[in-house]
Amino acid sequence: MSRIGRLPIEVPAGVEVKIKGPFVHVKGPKGELEWTFSPEMAIKNEDGVITVKRPSDQPTHRALHGTTRSVLNNMIVGVSTGFERVLEIEGVGYRAELDGNNLIVNVGFSHPVVVEPPEGISFDVDMKVRQIKVLGYDKQAVGQVAADIRKLRPPEPYKGKGIRYQGEYVRRKPGKAGKTAL
After folding, report:
1. Backbone φ and ψ of 121, nearest 5°
2. Which residues contact 63 (CB under 8 A, 6 or more apart)?
3. Tens of pLDDT along 70-92?
4. Which of 15, 26, 36, 49 is deepest in the core (most CB within 10 A)?
C-alpha cells in the first residue's frame, strides 16, 4: 500500500468538496479548483475525511494512488490557506516593484520586464530584503509563474547574480586564472 496514498485527507472548515466519479470540485475562501482524476481510483468523502482507494496492486494503479491523493490534498490546502513561492534578487542595480497588479523587474536588460499575473496569482515585493513572493491557490500555477520569473535572469555561476529561489544553492566557479610569472 502506498504510504502517501493511504493517508486520509481532512477537509477544513469553510472548504466544500464535491465528488462526482472521477471529477472533483473544491471550493474555499481563496478560490475554486476542479480536476478530473483517473476513473480507476475510488475517491470517497465520509464525514469530512477523504480517502483514495486503488483497485489492484498493478504498477500503474500504485503510481496513480499516491499521485491522486497528493493532487487532491494540494487542491484542498490551496483553496483554504494558499501557496507561496519566494524568489530572491541578487545583483547590483537589480530590483523589482509592483505597478498595480503587474510586476516590473529590472535585471540588467535595456528595458524593464513587465510580468502580468494570470488569474488566481498575485505578487508581493519586499525590496528591503530583495524578495518577490508569488502567491496563489493553485500550486502548479504558483510554481510555473515563479519559474517563468526566475527564467528572466537565472543565477550565473561566477558572481551569483540573477533571480533565484529562496534557499537555492548556486554553485560558484572560480574566474579566470591569471598568468603566472616565471
Report:
1. -115, 140
2. none
3. 999 999 999 999 999 999 999 99
4. 26
Contact (CB, 8 A) for 134 and 87 = yes
C-alpha cell at 4: 502517501
Q: Spell out the domain ranges in the chain.
A: 9-80, 83-165
Taking each helix axis from N to C terminus, what angle separates 59-80 and 139-152, rounded to the nearest 10 degrees? Answer: 80
Domain 83-165 grouped into CATH 3.90.930.12: yes
Give the confidence band of 182 by pLDDT, cuts at 50, 70, 90: low
pTM for the model stands at: 0.88
Type and span of the H or E element at 178? none
Residue 118, C-beta contacts closer than 8 angstroms, at least 6 positions apart: 141, 145
Same CATH fold assignment for domains 9-80 and 83-165? yes
CA distance 53 to 65: 7
Write down the architecture of domain 9-80 according to CATH. Answer: Alpha-Beta Complex (3.90)
CB-CB contact of 170 with 159 (8 Å): no
Give yes or no for a contact between 161 and 88, defined as CB atoms under 8 angstroms apart.
no
